[in-house]
Backbone:
């Protein structure tokens, strides 16, 4: 079956492997997340819906029938996802996630260990979120006309609530910009992938198809990464995920003024949400972005709800498009 | 007469060999403890300074070490990569069991090795370093004990073996 299953089952205890394998096919095939929490029932999210999974793999909405995860399970998962080497993953743990082979990310929660006021690592890890990212090639087909004008790529901000396919979209945009399509020649693309999610790097090598002309700076803080990659790889377009911190803005400004195009994303459900965040408001108000795309789920996950012209703040899209 | 002498010689040879066997246990135990100390130091470098993943680190150290200790470490690594066992402590235990016949450690030594093995790789770098320090300290102690025992018993068992043979021969004839 699909490769995510192999990767994820490989880091699960035998009992949980068996349960996951006996989940009905229709639920399994559109699985988005597997949630493991100590002393609580095993849960999965499939097609946007939450299910508790019973011992026989049957999905149900009531938590009472769910298979309860015990301490031995979580201990075993920690050992397996870290390849028995917690010490080698302290940086990853301090960020709260580990990337598995194939670019699948496992979010972790437990007790943080502080050093000098900063998070050093995690201990007593007891909650796991296995995120099954899917590569959907061509998902950006209908978005591309909005972010390219003639042969120019536009500065673009994608606004979306979590889980609406923002990263999947960014990934496909990177691939299309880099490979080129119809009458658009490919350009040099650089991805600053702070959370290893766009390119899904494993040991630094992208596991997803992100295009022939794409360079990735993996697990790198956005602000420093943007500056660094402008100097080192001379990209035409920089793609990065989830901006919001002050230093990100400085870096973006630097890139914009340096003639490099930026495509990035932020959490929110519409422009209004973004304008409530002081730092983002600044960039939007100053008209840095040519296009602002809003994703939602009015026609299913991954619906392009609105497209704004960034300067005039006027809507371009007449009705939502399901990507 | 000739056969008699031959038999006597055989008896003396056998009991001397038996004595030597027992004496060698003391000698080899000391050697193995010393090799293990070197291995742990190598492993510490791999883990603390190079952040090598544990199965790979164990395999590297195991391959660069001759004899039963090297085999043992390679076995632990193999148990981990094959995922046949539940967790690091089980991997360690399985490898110990497999090599038990060739290892000359005493129960005290096994305790130290087990205590070290079950914590390996599941704690952060700082604790990992402490774990290595503790294990080295304990091994040092075991080494001293092994040395004392060797000094005391090695020669004794060798002479005892020979003398027992001699006694049997004298009594018989």
Residues:
């Amino acid at each position: 079956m699909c490769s995510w299953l192999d990767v994820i089952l490989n880091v699960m205890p035998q009992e949980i492997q068996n349960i996951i394998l006996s989940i009905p096919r229709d639920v399994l095939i559109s699985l988005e997340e597997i949630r493991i929490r100590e002393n609580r029932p095993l849960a999965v999210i499939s097609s946007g819906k939450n299910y508790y999974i019973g011992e026989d793999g049957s999905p149900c909405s009531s938590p009472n029938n769910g298979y309860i995860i015990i301490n031995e399970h979580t201990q075993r998962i920690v050992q397996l996802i870290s390849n028995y080497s917690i010490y080698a993953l302290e940086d990853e743990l301090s960020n709260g996630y580990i990337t598995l082979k194939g670019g699948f990310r496992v979010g972790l929660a437990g007790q943080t260990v502080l050093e000098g006021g900063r998070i050093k690592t995690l201990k007593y890890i007891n909650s796991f979120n296995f995120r099954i990212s899917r590569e959907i090639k061509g998902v950006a087909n209908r978005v591309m006309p909005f972010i390219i004008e003639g042969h120019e790529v536009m500065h673009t901000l994608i606004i979306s609530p979590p889980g609406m396919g923002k990263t999947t979209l960014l990934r496909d945009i990177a691939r299309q910009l880099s490979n080129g399509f119809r009458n658009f020649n490919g350009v040099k693309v650089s991805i600053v992938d702070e959370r290893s999610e766009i390119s899904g790097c494993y040991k630094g090598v992208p596991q997803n198809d992100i295009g022939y002309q794409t360079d990735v700076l993996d697990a790198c803080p956005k602000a420093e990464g943007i500056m660094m990659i402008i100097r080192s790889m001379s990209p035409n377009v920089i793609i990065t995920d989830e901006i919001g911190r002050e230093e990100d803005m400085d870096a973006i400004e630097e890139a914009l003024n340096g003639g490099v195009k930026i495509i990035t994303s932020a959490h929110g459900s519409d422009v209004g949400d973004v304008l409530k965040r002081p730092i983002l408001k600044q960039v939007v108000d100053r008209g840095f972005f040519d296009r602002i795309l809003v994703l939602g789920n009015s026609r299913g996950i991954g619906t392009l709800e609105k497209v704004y012209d960034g300067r005039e703040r006027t809507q371009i899209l007449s009705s939502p498009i399901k990507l | 007469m000739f056969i008699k002498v031959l038999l006597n010689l055989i008896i003396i040879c056998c009991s001397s060999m038996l004595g030597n066997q027992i004496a060698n246990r003391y000698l080899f135990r000391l050697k193995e403890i010393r090799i293990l100390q070197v291995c742990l130091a190598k492993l510490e470098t791999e883990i603390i300074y190079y952040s090598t993943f544990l199965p790979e680190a164990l395999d590297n150290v195991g391959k660069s070490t001759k004899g039963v200790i090297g085999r043992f470490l390679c076995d632990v690594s193999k148990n981990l990569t094959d995922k046949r066992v539940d967790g690091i402590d089980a991997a360690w235990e399985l490898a110990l069991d497999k090599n038990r016949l060739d290892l000359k450690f005493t129960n005290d030594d096994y305790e130290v090795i087990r205590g070290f093995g079950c914590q390996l790789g599941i704690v952060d770098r700082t604790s990992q370093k402490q774990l290595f320090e503790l294990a080295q300290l304990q091994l040092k102690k075991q080494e001293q004990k092994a040395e004392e025992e060797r000094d005391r018993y090695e020669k004794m068992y060798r002479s005892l073996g020979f003398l027992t043979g001699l006694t049997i021969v004298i009594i018989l004839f």
